């Protein structure tokens, strides 16, 4: 089943029997939901909490506010760890982009190794979207510091080199690829006004740190702050030596 709820439950590692037991319903009822039937509001709330998906992601036909106010909450979903983000959330984020995609990280190796996500990024670049990827400078001061913090030494630089090779087809398709040497407080993944922000925690890998899904409502809100941060780093970054891409 390719229904959003079915995909979300698979990503959360639960089946209809598990869901039925948690929500106190019959497994056949869960099967009908997974086939497209709309659950009652109380069950929609429970399913959103269980999967970590927003209700509008699970049921795209739900009515939305006609005109969101500037004060609307920009935080859509909070994931306790990057590893709990549904595996297809990254592809869904980038697939929605109509104008630009920005990625700021030290390595973003998990994306470079994600065949579906990297192919989608390459296609977006081919279509002419502005696609910018800024990764850490291998051997840079702050990259080395991060490697020491995570107790992996040169492993951080090795990850970046591997990711650069993985992202090369995107650069060849028209995407922009740069390197930075900054203290990276967050990794930023942006598709137009939607952002996934992976916070960084001292001594822990990014996959173990929380992720915030933000939607930009206001010119001076949370999402705008992270977008401005990306621009600051991008402006101080440089193109990689071609040898790093081979």
TrEMBL record:
Top-rank taxon, per record: Bacteria
Molecular functions per Gene Ontology: DNA binding
Stated name of the protein: HTH cro/C1-type domain-containing protein
Biological source species: Paractinoplanes atraurantiacus
């Amino acid at each position: 089943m390719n229904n959003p709820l079915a995909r979300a439950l698979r990503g959360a590692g639960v089946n209809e029997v598990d869901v039925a037991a948690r929500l106190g319903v019959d497994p056949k009822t869960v099967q009908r939901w997974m086939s497209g039937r709309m659950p009652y509001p109380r069950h929609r709330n429970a399913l959103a909490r269980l999967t970590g998906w927003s209700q509008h992601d699970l049921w795209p036909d739900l009515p939305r506010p006609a005109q969101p106010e500037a004060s609307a909450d920009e935080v859509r979903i909070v994931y306790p760890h990057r590893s709990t983000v549904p595996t297809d959330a990254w592809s869904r984020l980038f697939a929605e982009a109509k104008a630009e995609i920005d990625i700021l990280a030290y390595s973003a190796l998990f994306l470079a190794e994600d065949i579906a996500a990297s192919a989608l990024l390459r296609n977006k670049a081919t279509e002419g979207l502005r696609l910018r990827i800024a990764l850490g400078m291998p051997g840079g001061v702050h990259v080395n510091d991060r490697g020491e913090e995570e107790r992996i030494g040169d492993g951080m630089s090795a990850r970046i080199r591997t990711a650069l090779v993985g992202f090369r087809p995107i650069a060849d398709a028209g995407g922009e690829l740069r390197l930075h040497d900054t203290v990276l407080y967050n990794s930023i993944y942006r598709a137009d006004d939607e952002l996934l922000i992976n916070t960084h925690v001292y001594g822990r890998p990014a996959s173990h740190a929380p992720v915030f899904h933000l939607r930009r409502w206001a010119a001076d809100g949370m999402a705008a702050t992270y977008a401005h941060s990306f621009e600051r780093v991008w402006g101080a970054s440089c193109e990689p030596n071609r040898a790093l891409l081979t």
